[in-house]
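Protocol step 4 of 5: obtain the predicted structure for the target chain.
Materials: sequence only (see below). No template structures provided, no constraints applied. The aim of this step is simply to have a reference model before the mutagenesis design in step 5. Sequence pasted as it appears in the construct record:
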Amino acid sequence: MLVSFNNLNELKIENYRTPAIQELGAHVWKILPSGVESEGPDGRTYYVRFRNSPWDLSGPYVKECVGIRRCVRRLTHAEHTSSLSPSLHSSSDGYV
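Step 4 output (structure tokens):
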């Protein structure tokens, strides 16, 4: 999963899994008081556009922006780790 912060209000999530989007929606979207303007998939990319400009570090949402970045970082790390775990621990493919 690759996450990028675009413009001043867009989150772009590539190669995502549905549970990851659900986790982000349940926790991260609610951090910003102005809320989500639009969201949805486009192929293997998921876009979220927030109201106002939450990535503007000179604006009123600096604390929220930092919180969202931390949550996204934790989730992408967990997603990466969990996607590797089954193949590393499974002996069904002939590897130990």
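Step 4 remarks: The first strand starts at residue 2 and ends at 6. Confidence is low (pLDDT under 50) at residues 84-96.
Proceed to step 5.
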